[in-house]
Design brief:
heterodimer, A: mainly beta, Jelly Rolls, eight-stranded antiparallel beta sheet, 0% helix, 49% strand, globular, B: mainly beta, four-stranded antiparallel beta sheet
């Protein structure tokens, strides 16, 4: 049976960014999963952004999310994940999934994002997902960079990049 | 016994490469990062719970993919880790929609997490679930889960939700018990996968 799901690299970080470089072109899709928390962020600054090949322009995303009891739909120009705020319940980390389809294709890249912050509270959380298109240089993705909206990632934040094959 | 000497005798080609390893020339074996741990399929007569016990700590993440078939008057479906179902250690937040509306829901200090909403008295409905549990054995973290589920009752009514739960414990998860509001009917099936990191 073919091996279709392979860990490429895992990382931890206590700085403001995480970089996966030299991503091999031997897979069909990429799956990036993160479990992270900020060291000094709040519920208003809990995003992290992703750059592809060092670029964070030409991104267009539609998001649907709940935060504190209401549902919001929006169009943004970032590729986003959630970094559990330092102001939330201690030791709680976010859970994010970024699935990058056909990352070596010469066409626009499509990314599905699922992100949650948790908190033992009826507010100060985010549960949502988005679809993102990167219409930048139609090159294979060879690096992915995550950068916090503010502050650093807290200790025990983890980041895993998998390669998915379709055969 | 290790090979200590090779000869051209018996080989049609004279351009073979000599190696100390039988692995030479073969494609490197890279183990998969996604493995089945256990699948539970409900038999005739049904059962009220589906349990995964003795979960090994040899993976980094867990994923549960399930189909729940229910009959009779049903309530929400729940799950709990390591037998912790009475201490108020769970929170839940959701983004949901039915055939016409979207809404958000939340609950704090719950005794369990949940995997499907209360379906009221709608009989004979089916729910599907994909549940991710990252860093399930990391003793420095409370455990955050992220899941999708949806159910429908004969296509007449339905509901879908994107949900997060948090279990406020740093213990490694060694068991998960899913509990139906009423009974898991025959052919309900939940599969537990381990993902290496």
């Amino acid at each position: 049976m073919a091996n279709t799901y392979t860990l490429i690299e895992s990382k931890t970080s206590t700085s403001s960014s995480v970089i996966f470089t030299s991503i091999p072109a031997t897979y069909t899709d990429l799956k990036l999963v993160t479990s992270c928390r900020g060291s000094s962020n709040t519920s208003g600054t809990s995003w992290y952004t992703l750059s592809l090949n060092g670029v964070n322009t030409n991104l267009n995303a539609f998001i649907l999310q709940a935060d504190g009891g209401s549902v919001t739909a929006a169009n943004v120009t970032d590729l986003l994940g959630q970094n559990n705020p330092n102001s939330t319940t201690a030791d709680v980390f976010s859970s994010n999934n970024h699935y990058i389809y056909n990352y070596t294709s010469s066409e626009y890249k499509v990314i599905l994002n699922e992100y949650v912050n948790e908190n033992n509270s009826t507010s100060a959380y985010i549960t949502g997902f988005s679809g993102t298109v990167w219409s930048g240089t139609p090159a294979a993705i060879t690096s992915v960079t995550l950068t916090t909206q503010t502050g650093n990632f807290a200790a025990n934040s983890t980041f895993y990049l998998y390669g998915i094959k379709n055969s | 016994m290790a090979i200590t000497k090779m000869s051209k005798v018996g080989f049609k080609s004279t351009s073979y490469l000599k190696s100390d390893s039988f692995l030479a020339g073969n494609t490197a074996y890279i183990p998969t990062s996604y493995e089945s741990i256990q699948t539970v399929t409900v038999g005739s007569g049904g059962q009220s719970t589906i349990s995964f016990t003795s979960i090994p700590s040899t993976f980094t993440h867990l994923q549960v993919r399930g189909i729940g078939l229910f009959s009779g008057s049903v309530g929400a479906g729940y799950f709990a880790f390591n037998g912790d179902n009475a201490s108020g250690n769970y929170s839940v937040h959701g983004l949901n929609g039915d055939s016409a509306n979207t809404s958000a829901n939340n609950a704090t200090s719950q005794n369990t997490a949940y995997f499907t909403a209360n379906a009221g008295t709608n009989p004979n409905y089916v729910t599907s679930l994909v549940l991710d549990i990252f860093d399930y054995a990391n003793v420095n973290k409370y455990k955050t889960t992220r899941s999708h589920y949806g159910w429908t009752s004969n296509g007449v009514t339905g509901y879908t939700e994107f949900t997060s739960n948090n279990w406020r414990s740093t213990s490694a998860i060694t068991s998960i018990v899913f509990t139906a509001g009423n009974t898991f009917a025959q052919y309900s099936s939940f599969a537990l996968y381990g993902i290496k990191g």
